[in-house]
Design brief:
Layout lengths: L2 E5 L5 H10 L3 E5 L7 H4 L4 E2 L3 H7 L2 E4 L4 H9 L13 E4 L5 H13 L3 E4 L2 E2 L2 H5 L3 E6 L2 H14 E8 L3 H29 L4 H10 L5 H12 L8 H18 L4 H18 L7 H8 L3
This protein binds NADP nicotinamide-adenine-dinucleotide phosphate.
Organism: Thermoactinomyces daqus
InterPro entries: 6-PGluconate_DH-like_C_sf, 6PGD_dom2, 6PGDH_NADP-bd, HIBADH-like_NADP-bd, HIBADH-related, HIBADH-related_NP60_sf, NAD(P)-bd_dom_sf
Keywords: NAD, Oxidoreductase
């Protein structure tokens, strides 16, 4: 069995690393804010002091970080991942970042003899805890096969999209749908309330309809109570919609819903909702229509 390293114990990284531990894997952990490692060390993980130590003492190094800036910092900082990179090491980056940055990070790792996979995930915190994520993979296929036993612990399905960056492209594609659906539900609720309809009945109507989804059920209480404790923060959804816009511009394609959604989530972020769950875009739309 491989020794695993885990860097990034936020909303997603913590339950994912915990699942590997509970499945009996040997896991070394590092997080910038040290206190987040405690639940993992209490469950048998070994806490190390830097990304460099994680690479030195692990065969396969998983990263679950906010964005490209975080990944770049963890790779290139003093005592970062690259400082200990050598042949035989595998970096599995599960963060959602741009395809372009993915390819650049893959080159940095391969220049030092390692292999870098992009393996972002679909599914939020509850799904991560349940080990039911969808792993969206790009990079060397043989290395993905080596990692498959661990992906099987983290998720219910791995979909391989091709060379380095393709996993990141696929992740942005599904998050475009997520952002649009999130705004769609928000607009539907604002429209219904402005029409004088009872919100509880509207929530029930959606639940009973063909438009019911696991996503909607997961966030229904947030819409009901207008409280949005974060699973997937507005600021991360906004980050992804910004990446989608940049990709669309690069490919010279027009995506009207992506444009509109990008603007709404960005405004939610700027209006004090950055750390709330993405469902709070409903609140943003509601506030914009209070008059
Ligand atoms: P999060 O709770 O904000 O965690 C972010 C992690 O990145 C934390 O461990 C944080 O460390 C670390 N980090 C940020 N900047 C860093 C830096 N400069 N150097 C070192 N570490 C840094 O985010 P999350 O919700 O777990 O999401 C992680 C990734 O998964 C994101 O790319 C997100 O888009 C994606 N994703 C999220 C969900 C979801 O539902 N939440 C679902 C699918 C995919 P600290 O603890 O020190 O801040």
């Amino acid at each position: 069995m491989h020794t695993l390293g885990w860097i990034g114990l936020g909303h997603m990284g913590a339950p994912m690393a915990m699942n590997l531990l509970q499945a009996g894997c040997k896991v070394n952990v590092y997080n910038r804010s040290r206190e987040k490692t405690t639940p993992l060390t209490e469950s048998g993980a070994t806490r190390l002091n830097s990304p460099k130590e994680i690479v030195e003492q692990s065969d396969i190094i998983f990263m679950m970080l906010s964005d490209s800036n975080a990944v770049r910092a963890v790779l290139t900082q003093e005592n970062g991942v690259l400082a200990a990179m050598r042949p035989g090491k595998v970096v599995v980056d599960m963060s959602t970042i741009s395809p372009e940055d993915t390819m650049s990070f893959a080159s940095m790792v391969s220049e030092r003899g390692g292999v870098y996979l992009d393996a972002p995930v679909s599914g939020s915190v509850g799904v991560a805890k349940a080990g039911q994520l969808v792993i969206i993979a790009g990079g060397d296929q043989q290395t993905i096969e080596i990692c498959q036993p661990y992906f099987n612990i983290l998720g219910k399905k791995t979909i391989y999209f091709g060379s380095s960056g393709k996993g990141s492209s696929a992740k942005l594609a599904i998050n475009l749908l997520l952002g649009v659906i999130g705004q769609g539900i928000g607009e539907t609720l604002v429209f219904a309330e402005k029409s004088g309809l009872d919100k509880e009945k509207v929530l029930d109507m959606i639940s009973q309809s063909a438009l019911n989804t696991a996503l909607f059920q997961g966030k229904k209480d947030m819409y009901r109570n207008e409280e949005f404790p974060s699973a997937f923060m507005v600021e991360l959804m906004s980050k992804d919609l910004g990446l989608i816009k940049a990709e669309a511009d690069r490919m010279n394609i027009t995506l009207p819903l992506a444009e509109a959604t990008n603007i709404t989530y960005r405004s939610a972020k700027e209006n004090g909702k950055a750390k709330l769950d993405m469902a709070a875009v409903y609140l943003e739309l509601k506030e914009k229509n209070t008059r």
